[in-house]
Design a protein that fits this description.
Helices cover 91% and strands 0% of the residues. The protein has 169 residues and is mainly α. It has a domain at 5-88. Helix 1 (5-36) packs antiparallel against helix 2.
Length: 169
């Protein structure tokens, strides 16, 4: 229990730093949600993990700064730290991290494309002749089906015209 003013100022600054850390974690969480675009259940799980992490950080700071004692200036420290971080550093951190992640994803995509290049070439060498053969055979099959339907079509036409010839008055 810190009863001196120095102890309380120390606790206040510790919780102020805790609020800044919580604001930073919130920005990381926002960036993660921006890139992942989660569904309902995944969003619930992410929210749960975020709040568990924030709670653990707040408890850690409280236990190591004043042995878990909660006072009004502790809440004031956490809230003011988060507000200071949000007003001063949040935009800079978000833009920087988003640029870094975009470059990182772009680099991973380039490396992935380089690794897949031989397989794409093999696929194109195999798929192009396959497609040509399939088209050629498909056209031949269509002609063959038409030719095989010819006797039934002739029989149908003969039957139709014989009825009209026989029953003609």
């Amino acid at each position: 229990m810190a009863s001196s003013v120095e102890g309380q100022v120390y606790i206040f600054f510790a919780t102020l730093y805790g609020g800044i850390i919580i604001g930073f974690i919130y920005d990381i969480y926002r960036i993660f949600r921006y890139f992942s675009e989660p569904r309902k259940i995944v969003s619930f799980i992410e929210d749960l993990i975020f709040w568990i992490l924030v709670s653990l950080i707040a408890l850690f700071i409280l236990f190591f700064s004043n042995f878990g004692e909660v006072r009004g200036f502790v809440f004031l420290g956490f809230i003011s730290g988060a507000i200071i971080y949000n007003k001063l550093l949040s935009k800079l951190v978000i833009t920087t991290l988003v640029k870094i992640l975009r470059y990182l994803f772009r680099g991973i995509k380039i490396i992935f494309n380089i690794m897949l290049f031989p397989f794409k070439k093999i696929k194109s060498y195999i798929y192009t002749p396959y497609k040509k053969v399939k088209t050629y055979i498909g056209n031949k099959v269509k002609r063959l089906r038409k030719f095989l339907k010819l006797p039934s079509r002739i029989f149908y036409d003969i039957k139709k015209h014989t009825k009209s010839i026989i029953f003609k008055k």
